Amino acid sequence: MALRARTPHLLAALAGAVALLLPGAVEARVLLSLDDFGAVGDGIANDTQAFVDAWKAACATGGTTYLNVPAGKSYQIWPVTLAGPCRGEIKLMISGNIIAPEEPEDWSDGDQGRWLHFWGVGDLSLSGGGIVDGRGQQWWAGSCEDENCTSYRPYEVAPMALHFEDCRDVSVKGITVQNSQRQHLVFTRCHDVEAYYLRVTSPEYSHGTVGVLVVSSTDVHIKHDLFSVGWRLRVDRGQLLGYPAESHLVRTWPRHQHWRFGRETK
Ligand SMILES: *[C@@H]1O[C@H](CO)[C@@H](O)[C@H](O)[C@H]1NC(C)=O
Ligand SMILES: *[C@@H]1O[C@H](CO)[C@@H](O)[C@H](O)[C@H]1NC(C)=O
């Protein structure tokens, strides 16, 4: 693959970034789009570098930065870590699709266990009505859980689709997270989390998929979501405050059970 000219994209994007100063407001708002950074969004191209560049630009901007993943497009993203701390608040608006590469071979040794990894970020929100699709079919086919597993890739190393680690003030609302290779959403050592109005789904044969895994985190609020995943929801060494929540519907394959966590608060 030819070397891509990244810097011109970055400069063009920053020059083109729309800075709005709301009347009476002190805080600037900046609007960025993945496309400003050279992303193609055809579901085939490798848009990873554009995503990384866009993240870096958003992270370096103070105030509130909206980073848009445009609707009607599919951005194929290889495993990435999007790290903080950032100067301001980032609102990642996922209106289109973010898709994973389909082949497990696309994960190198250093990438094991991660796909979209947010690390050390505060004041981050994901919303926008779009889809994050792990396209985990080949991972599920290669998985097995029994003691004599001879799979070339034991299920433990399959990636977490959205992993938030050492984050605070995270909000994930109104998006679909589907077909994760393993866990759809993971919060590790996170504080003040809201995961509302999510659709988290993978098919019946997606053995081992997990809806949400919460590890060593506090103030995690998970409400009004629809889970329909291969295996289960898990909380390990986590503390969920305000949980269970009202109208929280969980369906796990294969028994098509409808679980409602704890008491209802209608
Ligand atoms: C896609 O781009 C990322 C970032 O530049 C790179 O790490 C990865 O190896 C690329 N994948 C392929 C298959 O070229
Ligand atoms: C695993 O292999 C051992 C030894 O061959 C056998 O006794 C055992 O039943 C196997 N376990 C499963 C789950 O197949």
UniProtKB/TrEMBL annotation:
Keywords: Cell wall, Cell wall biogenesis/degradation, Glycosidase, Hydrolase, Secreted, Signal. It holds the Pfam family Glyco_hydro_28. Residues 1-28 form the signal peptide. It is found in: Secreted, Cell wall. GO terms for biological process: carbohydrate metabolic process; cell wall organization. InterPro entries: Glyco_hydro_28 (IPR000743), Pectin_lyas_fold (IPR012334), Pectin_lyase_fold/virulence (IPR011050). GO terms for molecular function: polygalacturonase activity. Belongs to the glycosyl hydrolase 28 family. This is Polygalacturonase. It comes from Aegilops tauschii subsp. strangulata (Goatgrass).
